[in-house]
Design brief:
alpha/beta; Rossmann fold; 2 domains; 3-stranded antiparallel sheet; 11 helices; 11 strands
Amino acid sequence: MRIFTASLATETNTFSPVPTDMNAFKAAFFAGPGEHPDTPTLCSSVVPILRRRGRAEGFTVIEGTSCWAEPAGLIQRQTYEALRDLILAELTESLPVDGVVLGLHGAMAAQGYDDPEGDFLARVRQIVGPDVLVAAEFDPHSHLTALRVANLDIMAAFLEFPHTDFEQRGEHVVELAMQALKGKIKPVISTFDCRMITIFPTSREPMRSFVDRMQAMEGKDGILSASVIHGFMAGDLPDMGTRIVVVTDNDKAKGDALAASLGRELYSLRRQTAMPMLDTEAGLDKAVSIRASHPGLPVTIADVWDNPGGGVAGDATFILRRMMERGMDDFAVATIWDPIAVTFCQAAGEGAELSLRVGGKSGPEGGEPLDLRVTVQ
């Protein structure tokens, strides 16, 4: 038995002004064939998992390139096409194969491509033909398109947000692929569009119970796998939104019914899943009130949009500016991405006082820069 594995992944925020080029992939994670560390990474856990199983069970694993770029804006077209074609060439050189198992993210977007993963999977299918198994693991903060489903035999997403289970779900995908290749199961994918956009942290109710119950269904009554595609609201694309994915053992009708049932239930919970969020003024009012009640303890304020982990630059000044306008002065800010300000501070040296323009440089979405008198410490 011969299995090809590789990974191509990033998370694209289509509102972000920070472009994603080849340097972004090579700076974050880039492993050529056979170079992937034994430690799994977020979107490539299937590669070292297959390597271990191949050695233990005596089948051949052909490793292609695995690469990841930190979340940012649109992928440069030439970068996506070069990485795609690199992995496709490695796959072609590996033929014949019995299966292909990929680590994807699912929220990529590139110049000229609304659905890079769909494009990639369609080309994989074209190379290997209709009879070779193709499986993939996804991040739940992804998009789900008909083109992807049409070219996959098995798919599953992480169940947890925060994503603490990416390795376990990689093992889940690999195990299903092995069972299918041994002829023990015949996987069929069913999906349901929940027609909503929201946030689903699984460490709090009601998502904790929903995910636990959904996972308990796996491996019973012909249900092989069940996942929630949360959607990635920072990816302004036609297929963005929440989906349910169910994989059954050759029972499409059962999978369709279960996906629809889970999807409607999740829709009914739509006003309960996201954590409470406040606008800037109300958030600052609450912070002041909490601090007054607990004077010896710090209060943390989180700007949920200005998050580099979601692809923005991380140089927003809206909340900081408003805190200063309100006369608040006993606070720390972590962090503002501003290489120019850092360079000036390094040049001035520790202890220096200087006028510094901070933040707001990546674009108007982050607010205007702040002109401050600072001391370098």
